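Entry:
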Amino acid sequence: MKAEKKLSPKVKALYEAVEELIFENIDVKEIKVSDITERAGIGKGTAYEYFRNKEEIISSAMLYHIDLICRQMIEKLEELKDFPKTMQLLLCCMDEEIKKRDCLVQFIHLLSDNGLIGKVLQKKIKERNQELCMPKDVIAHMIQVGIENGDINKELPLDYVSMEIASRVLIYIIYITDDDKNGCSRQQMHRLVCDAMCKALK
């Protein structure tokens, strides 16, 4: 796994402040530098010693948290050698880590956003690609397990397999962020998502 980067205490405080604000369902576009520094307990000027603007603080914080979430997921996945179970674990992690899931949802939204924060986030991902642990790395680990165990057809292109898994995860994100579940329990949805994905990849 890629090495985790060490942070200064002040930068970590800024990142945690951004995470807390996101957990309170504040749209990242509405967050101000003063909101972040106040929550972090440091002066506004201190934030500018490390970052040029609000967009850099927020995009760097989101990358830090996504990296952390993905590292934790891969650690859990490494204990499993069964592809369907890796998908079930991924869905269970999303159920358990509701706050982190909200961060993930905003992160995914910003990847396709043309606003300032989205552009800075996309640029940082390209610059730091080699050192970050991202959702694609979680999916790559799942694919490796699936191919080794014969759960994934080796003849299928890896790009297709990646997109199939990612699309099933997005379907589940839509389900858990919808307040009206229409009588489908999470256990039922886990089974339906996993069964459909396994059939598509055989």
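The longest helix spans residues 54-77.
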